[in-house]
């Protein structure tokens, strides 16, 4: 075979959906004992995001921390007008510990935006989101989008204790009705949360349900959603290597038209139909 | 202008940089221009549909990673109908990686995948041969010879044999593949490894063990590429831990005719594009006009064969 | 108080931390108190005087190192007169590593080194057997069995066989060593590797190739230690890439009864001392009163054997 | 065998010759285009040094540089009274590049002091040192020691051009007679240097010769030393892993009583008898 010459016209070029980009840290402050907020100065091209999408972060390497793979993080906020990209993260292991040591002015290589975000169908005028812990990060942009689209939003925010409740102001600012439930106050148990949602539904205040992360929330919203025929979406997590769909490591099982399928969280997700998602 | 073209048998590549099987897919077009690559190499495909291994399928180890993806496969029909047409849009050779757990299945997929649009078949013989004791074909010269001979008979396409590092017989396996008609060797696949979560005491991979890839693998795969290039006359394609242009050059000097880049693309999806331009710049800086001038130029004369042989194990 | 003692056959160690052969010597007494270690393990010694390999004998690779020291040796007489007496001052078991290039020489040094002051003979069978094709004894079950059988006959001391990762037959070799009377296995030695200086185009090691050690080796050696612990009944001593207490615990959970620390001592000469106290602290934090409670507690039930077997190579 | 109980009396404890210690960077400044000087705040115990000894530095790991092994560096200065340890280094590869990025206040793990330094015999009243490039680092403490012992010192400093001549002030301060030779001025060739030394010897101004590093200097001083029967010492370099004598990687060949022996640069050296050293 003869040498195939490179031909700029033939062949698709990068379709420009996701970018590997260098950003600069604007701030990286503790929000409370467990969570930190990272604000990046980011190029415009990576700020065309959808709520529920994520970035894959190349955490810094130091003498103390040597993460190798990237770490997936939901977009907590994207602000093209300010050129800002926000993340809210919990410090757990090597990668997030390394992230926590970033200082203002440091650079951070990010890859994104990645994945498929939440949908808000035209006829979903009343939406309800249920968030706990760092799940708030994932759901915050959805609140922004709801306001932009003029939808009515109820946000149920759950936490261990009132001290670690985050982002309530953010949701309030977005015009949401915020309901807080906590473990210490004994209001965050599934029954109570379910009954709050049932009441809302009975009042005709819920066209769609949204959540992310945990198995317990998934079960809860699957049950309530099925009971009342209310659609919903959930953002899922899974270990990731590539983040763009190549390695097939991030699959989860889904119930789809009577069969069990494997879908990639990074590519077909991270947001999935709540009834198709399977507990783990 | 620097000439980056390299030849693997009759096939000329515009540059020696291509992805490694299983670390590349159509999806990468979201981030880079796939038309700049030396070749496109697809994830190993099997005839039948397969689910792949339990999760977690990857974990991190110091400076590298383990994976036990398995070979989830939508089957050969889906591949022929969907994947091959995607790559036809590019003027880049398409290398299709195949596998099977016994020789007959291997021969069938090899024959069936020999369709227009496919330029080379990469034979992933680093997978278990269940007809014998379950050790990978590429762990032994005899099973390597047997499977490659069979495949040679059923396809006219160039066959690249992909070797495994999980063997003490690298050169013997390389020679067996050449004798059986392989057109090139890809050296190498991942190395069997393990990691355990000390808190849960569970293996970090759902499948208990998995393959090591990334920088930790480089000195091992480089040694194998060198050994193979010395042992055979067919081209050797280096693979294992490549992430910088220095790595590429090291493999070329060791005797590789081209290289495959795997895990580095997960860390920086633009790696291959960067490597191509950095290779050009490196050659310019060294006043080398043709990349082929590097291949196999390792200055190993000083080390007498006998010394190597006697003392290699410290 | 946490109990750190561990038993290798009849030998009780005050803790499971000991140095790896070739990465430890009397000289370390300049930096740490040698009396705290679980055992002392000497550099492999041969009967005859030997010069070792050409320099450079070490080089760095990403996050790890290669070495081709060879086995420079002042001979067994010097060893018996100078080295053994030095360690007699310590109340710590002395493990003497020996090697030879053929079975007869191996037997002779094994016999001659079985002197008072020596508690265990570690048999470095990861070295080339020049009577056959030059592959290391430990690369094949047959040659492992042959040499260990011979050594078993000439010494009453416990024999630890030190395995090599340069084989596709880890479990078979482990079983052969056990069958031939080995009292324990040390898993493992270094992995054959290479690095080339891209500017001079010369191999970075004077001896062309050398052994990989350090963090890159850990997932490989851990996998081998796990495989061996499953395959044999004699104790397995884990070795390869250990530098943190998490690494130690990972090996113990995988089935190792004790561990050897090599390259990490080059990076931090106080590593072993730190590991001993950190192991104590770790156990306290987990409310584990006896380190032996960790050994072999890996929760591998989920992974069906068949899956492991079929899909291990990705 | 029964458990051998730990017995604090039996067995030698660490003899305290060398220490792994954390130091703090006081300054790390460029000396000229190629060389940098690192000043560390160091604990007293590691400051009991000899001229010619070295430390083994654990260079920092960053996203850009990931050195693994330690890097050997001659002691450029040790000042117990100030608690300072100085190094003079040339930025060449990964490790020294990483060193160059250390900032004031950063910590640096050092191992030392290591090796056998220079000897100044009681009857060596006039000593001459020949230094080029970073070799000045190794020889500087010798000048200090010479002054402390009240010996007369001649320092021949060689460099590519006058701009990169370093430490001349330091040697002058130590009361040395400083002779500079440079490539650009055409004064640094071996013949000229040899003739300078010969003249000094003829004037009875040299009892011992000292140098370090290069093959050319070694040859030169071996020849001149042999010619006039003047003893000398050279500090040698070799790739090192452990730095303390365990790994046997750092050997060099020496001519000793008619035989060729291998000695460890880190342990028997880095300073050796100049006539025993062999060119490479
Ligand atoms: C799509 C997506 C969005 C996420 N968004 C957020 C967010 O907004 N804020 C936040 O705090 N966390 C988020 N996470 C979880 C976050 O990725 C992990 O907490 C983080 O990777 C942990 O890394 P580590 O090195 O600190 O922990 P380690 O436990 O040391 O990580 C070891 C390995 O496991 C992986 N891993 C560990 N936990 C998770 C997890 N929950 N999901 C996927 N991989 C994991 C790591 O990426 C790494 O490869 C998200 C995960 C996904 C998949
Ligand atoms: C006893 C001794 C004292 C030294 N004193 C000084 C000094 O005061 N100032 C100074 O600038 N340099 C000194 N050197 C040389 C210094 O150690 C090397 O320049 C340094 O290790 C280079 O590391 P790198 O990572 O920047 O270079 P690289 O070339 O990337 O190093 C790669 C590997 O080679 C080793 N290496 C490279 N060059 C040398 C060398 N010349 N000697 C030994 N190992 C080497 C490195 O340690 C490393 O392991 C000394 C060397 C020795 C042995
Ligand atoms: C996630 C993952 C999946 C892989 N899948 C395959 C595969 O399907 N077929 C194959 O031959 N090799 C597969 N490999 C091995 C790579 O092609 C390559 O040989 C190996 O990763 C070493 O190269 P690297 O260090 O550059 O990644 C896979 C590797 C990874 C990391
Ligand atoms: C410099 C060096 C010299 C070694 N010499 C020997 C030796 O003489 N005999 C032996 O059995 N193993 C030898 N080894 C191998 C180590 O004992 C150990 O098996 C290996 O380094 C893996 O452990 P690590 O990763 O903790 O270093 C040597 C290793 C190194 C790095
Ligand atoms: S992380 Fe690679 S496919 Fe999803
Ligand atoms: S560096 Fe290890 S013996 Fe000298």
Topology:
The complex is a heterotetramer, with two copies of chain A (280 residues) and two copies of chain B (314 residues).
Chain A lengths: L18 E12 L4 E7 L12 E5 L12 E4 L2 E3 L4 E7 L3 H7 L6 E8 L11 E7 L2 H14 L3 E8 L8 H6 L3 E6 L7 H13 L5 E5 L2 H14 L3 E4 L15 E6 L2 E6 L6 E3 L7
Parallel strand pairs in A: 8-9, 8-11, 9-10, 11-12
Antiparallel strand pairs in A: 1-2, 1-7, 2-6, 3-4, 3-7, 5-6, 12-15, 13-14
Helix pairs in contact in A: 4-5
Chain B lengths: L5 E3 L2 E3 L3 E3 L20 E2 L16 E4 L2 E4 L7 H14 L5 E5 L4 H10 L7 E5 L16 H14 L4 E4 L7 H10 L4 E4 L3 E3 L16 E4 L4 H14 L4 E4 L5 H10 L3 E4 L2 H4 L3 H15 L19 H7 L3
Helix pairs in contact in B: 2-3, 3-4, 4-5, 5-6
Please report which band the strand proportion of chain A falls in: under 5%, 5-15%, 15-25%, 25-35%, 35-45% or over 45%: 25-35%
CATH homolog superfamily of chain B: Aldolase class I
Q: Which compounds are bound in this model? A: flavin-adenine dinucleotide, flavin mononucleotide, FE2/S2 (inorganic) cluster
In the sheet with the most strands of chain A, the strands line up as: 4-3-7-1-2-6-5
The number of strands of chain B is 14
Largest sheet of chain A: 7 strands, antiparallel
Tell me the CATH architecture of chain B.
Alpha-Beta Barrel
Mean pLDDT of chain A: 90
The number of domains of chain A: 2
Q: Terminal Cα separation of chain B, in Å?
A: 45 Å
The CATH top-level class label of chain B: Alpha Beta
Number of helical segments of chain A? Answer: 5
Largest sheet of chain B: 8 strands, parallel
Task: Give the N-terminus to C-terminus distance of chain A in angstroms.
Answer: 50 Å
SSE pattern of chain B: EEEEEEHEHEHEHEEEHEHEHHH
- Give the total of domains of chain B: 1
CATH class of the largest domain in chain A: Mainly Beta
Number of H/I helices of chain B: 9
